[in-house]
Model the fold of this input.
Amino acid sequence: MAENRKKFDKKGAGNMDEIAKTLFAPIYPMIAQNIIDRFGITEGICIDLGSGPASLAIAVAAQSDLEVIALDFSDHMHEAASRNIADAGLSGRIRLLRGDVHDIPLADDTADLIISRGSMFFWDDVHRAFREIYRVLKPDGRTYIGGGFGNRELRDSISAEMIRRNPDWKEFNRKNISPENVARFRTVLEEIGVPSFDIIHGDEGFWIVIAKTTGGALP
Ligand SMILES: C[S@@+](CC[C@H](N)C(=O)[O-])C[C@H]1O[C@@H](n2cnc3c(N)ncnc32)[C@H](O)[C@@H]1O
Done:
C-alpha cells in the first residue's frame, strides 16, 4: 500500500495535474460524453474514484446536472483538484472526499453513477475495492471504471506521444489493457458474486460496467 501511495506524492500529483491539463486534456470531455450517452444518467450523485486532479469529475459535472464526489487518498491530488474545480467554476457541484477505495467513507446505496479512470490498475486488493463499489452504488446505478482515452484517434495519438516521452509507458499500458488483465478483473467480479456486469474492451478503452440489481452490499 505504501509503495502505491508514494507514486501520488507531491511530485506525482504535479506531473498528473500537468499532463491532465495538456496532453490528456481532450480525453476527459470525450469520456464524459461516452458515459452520458451510454447510460443517460444526468442527475443524482456521481462518485469519481481516484479522481486525481478532478479532470473527469469536472467534465462530467460540466456536461450534466450530477453532483460529483471526487474521492482520492492523496492530499496532493486534492490540492490540484481544488484549484481546478474552482477555476472551472464548479465548486458548488463537486465535493472533494479524502478516502481509499478499499474502505469508501460513504453509506450503502449512495451513488447513481460511479466512474473512475486510470486508478484501478493501482489498487492493492481489487476484490475488496469492488465489494465497496457495489455497496455504495444505488440499485439501478451504473459504474464505468477502468482506463482509456475515449476514442481511437485520441488513444493512438496520445499513446504515441506517451511512448516518445517515456518508452516504459508502452509496457505499463499494454499490461493494463491486455486480455489477461481483462480476464483477471472478470474473474474478480465473478468471485465476489457481482450479479450483472459487462466489460467494454475496445477503442474507448477497458471499462467495467456494473448494473446493481439489489440494495446494500453483496452477500
Ligand atoms: C493515474 S491517476 C488518475 C487520475 C484521474 N482519474 C485521471 O484520469 O486524470 C490515479 C489516481 O488514483 C488515486 N488512487 C490510487 N489508489 C487509490 C486508492 N486506493 N484509493 C483512492 N485513490 C487512489 C491516486 O491518488 C491518483 O490520483
